[in-house]
From TrEMBL:
Keyword Nucleus: no
Ranges annotated as spanning the membrane: none
Entry coiled-coil feature ranges: 213-255
Protein's organism: Agaribacter flavus
Signal sequence segment: 1-35
Keyword Signal applies: yes
Pfam families on file: HXXSHH (PF07586)
Keywords on record: Coiled coil, Signal
Name of the protein: DUF1552 domain-containing protein
């Protein structure tokens, strides 16, 4: 018999507001799925990435705004002081590490508006594929079979964008972009929506879709024999995407007998317009959905591009909606009077939204592990540029994951010779992914480990 719990609005909002701790709720988790966490001997280990484009305010040390609005702390080690740009993170300083100096060597000379595509891959943009598998997908391959969704990819705009200004952080093994979900309503429907029709109807739909894909694959294989060189490589990349879609259908079939958790949609602002209504409720709703996805063990891997690196993107208007210039204008207007201060104020706003997410995660008991959700979730927050079009010295925060070997409480500054892939490699290994190397990593970063 399936064992499902219904979260009502009052209970959820209390948890989301962190006014009380939720108890362990094993009834969230259906016991009938062979791949479910309930059958696992080890506690869930989760990976979460939050990306924002356009970099941060970093006034020089002789500028009047340097003391208050320089994103990085002025001191390294444990006795650092947060500036106004990140002051909202102060309650969590013992649970996070601020990291400076890291970047991807192979993207340091690239078109900076594409940095979101390489934030989690560190790939060489000049390779024929254009990209490589991202760290979230490496981990999803390792842990994804334990949950209904191996991963969730989110963005404030959705889709894939274009190759110069992508709207997704996630790329598969062929280096192809994985479309993101761009609205709270879309995320909720994916995670907790009820499928159309009864089981037999859905099985027929799955069968029909698989037949279409099978026929498509056969036809493409015939075409492949007539192609050579780059055309064959491009077709193989497409075939890889088709095979992934087939695998998703198979996974969906396997979970048909398992009801989704019943979540009261009125607990979320699912249809808020981030420009007309302001971005706060929109961003917070996305964070609340991430939190709920982890709490219900619907997935253990989430990436969210909160603001993409694009002068014309929808999400760059978020700052205008709260009374500041557009985000791209903020990043280019630093030399104007009050420019660094205005940019820093928006950095502070984004930090406040992120801090609220950390608060939800820390204030909720993990249903299947000792400690809080944050203790068992590794969260990477940051950007692929530091200042305007500068693809070096990424502003990074690593939080959580203390139950699998991470130690926090410091601002750590690294030499530019250490690639950011060392951080991604460290994260993946501590999460349990069976790898010894990731992308262009030269090892792991040991001083963030116990």
């Amino acid at each position: 018999m399936k064992n499902i719990v219904n979260i009502n609005r009052r209970t959820f909002l209390k948890a989301a507001g962190s006014s009380l701790l939720l108890p362990a709720l094993p009834s969230f988790f259906p016991r009938t799925a062979s791949a479910n966490v309930a059958t696992q001997k080890t506690a869930p280990r989760r990976m979460c990435t939050v990306f924002f484009g356009m970099g941060v305010s970093l006034p020089p040390d002789d500028h009047i705004a340097y003391r208050d609005w320089h994103w990085f702390p002025h001191e390294t080690g444990a006795n650092y002081t947060l500036t106004k740009s990140t002051l909202a993170l102060e309650p969590h300083r013992k649970r996070l590490t601020i990291m400076s100096g890291l970047s991807h060597p192979r993207t340091r000379t690239m078109y900076s508006h594409s940095t979101g595509a390489y934030f989690l891959s560190g790939a060489d943009p000049k390779t024929p594929a254009g990209n490589a598998i991202t760290a979230d997908q490496v981990y999803a391959e390792h842990v994804g079979q334990h949950t209904r969704y191996p991963f969730i990819t989110m963005d404030s705009e959705g889709g894939i964008g274009d190759f110069r200004e992508p709207t997704t952080l996630s790329y598969n093994r062929s280096g192809q972009p994985i479309p993101s979900i761009g609205k709270p309503r879309g995320v909720f429907n994916e995670l907790f929506g009820v499928g159309k029709g009864d089981k037999n109807t859905q099985l027929r739909d799955f069968g029909r879709n698989k037949s279409i894909l099978d026929k498509m694959t056969q036809d493409l294989k015939v075409l492949e024999n007539k192609l050579a060189g780059d055309d064959k490589n491009r077709l193989e990349q497409y075939l890889s995407s088709v095979r992934e879609l087939e695998h998703r259908i198979e996974r969906a079939e396997a979970w048909l007998d398992v009801e989704k958790p019943r979540i009261d949609e009125s607990a979320f602002n699912l249809d808020t317009d981030p420009i007309k209504d302001g971005p706060t409720e929109f961003i917070d709703a996305m964070y609340q959905l991430m939190y709920t996805a982890f709490l219900t063990d619907s997935t253990r891997v989430i990436s969210y591009q909160k603001v993409r690196e694009s002068p014309g993107g929808y999400s760059v208007k978020f700052s205008k909606a709260i009374g500041l210039p557009g985000h791209h204008a903020l990043s280019h207007g630093f030399n104007e009077e009050g420019g660094y201060e205005r940019w820093g104020q928006y950095d502070a706003y984004l930090s406040e939204r992120f801090a609220k997410f950390l608060n939800m995660m820390k204030s909720t008991d993990d249903p299947f592990a000792e400690g809080s959700l944050l203790d068992n979730t590794l969260v990477l927050y940051g950007s692929g540029t530091s200042t305007v079009h500068n693809t070096r010295n990424f502003p990074l925060v690593l939080a959580g994951g203390e139950n699998f070997g991470f130690k926090h409480g410091e601002h750590r500054k690294y030499d530019e010779s250490i690639p950011m892939s060392n951080l991604l490699n460290t994260m993946l290994q501590q999460l349990g992914a069976p790898i010894s190397n990731f992308a262009d990593s030269t090892g792991t970063i040991k001083n963030i480990l116990v």
